[in-house]
Design goal:
It is a single chain. Helices cover 51% and strands 0% of the residues. It has 88 residues and is an all-alpha fold. It starts with a helix and ends in a 7-residue tail after the last helix.
Length: 88
C-alpha cells in the first residue's frame, strides 16, 4: 500500500516537472521563430470580450427614515403644526 502511494507521488512530481520543462521549451522555440513554436496570434487568456459597465447611479436611501431631506421636511411640518409652547 505504501509502495503504491510513493509511486503515485513520484509520478505526479515527475509529470509536473516534465510539463514545466516542455512548456519552457515550447515558449523558447516560439520566441526564436523555430518551427513548432507557439503562434503569436493565438489567444493566451480569456477570449470573452469585456462587457461595458453601466454607469453607477447614486445610492438612494433604502427607507424614508434614512433620508435626511425627508426627516428635515418632517421636522418642519411638525414645527408648523405644533409650535413650541412657552412655559410660565
Amino acid at each position: 500500500m505504501i509502495a503504491f502511494l510513493v509511486a503515485v507521488l513520484v509520478l505526479v512530481v515527475v509529470g509536473t516537472l516534465l510539463w514545466k520543462v516542455m512548456a519552457a521549451q515550447a515558449a523558447q522555440a516560439g520566441h526564436d521563430g523555430a518551427p513548432g513554436g507557439m503562434v503569436e496570434d493565438a489567444p493566451t487568456g480569456p477570449t470573452r470580450q469585456a462587457t461595458p459597465r453601466r454607469p453607477q447611479r447614486p445610492r438612494r436611501p433604502v427607507a424614508p427614515d434614512d433620508d435626511p431631506e425627508f426627516l428635515r421636511s418632517l421636522d418642519e411640518k411638525i414645527q408648523r403644526e405644533d409650535p413650541p409652547s412657552s412655559s410660565p
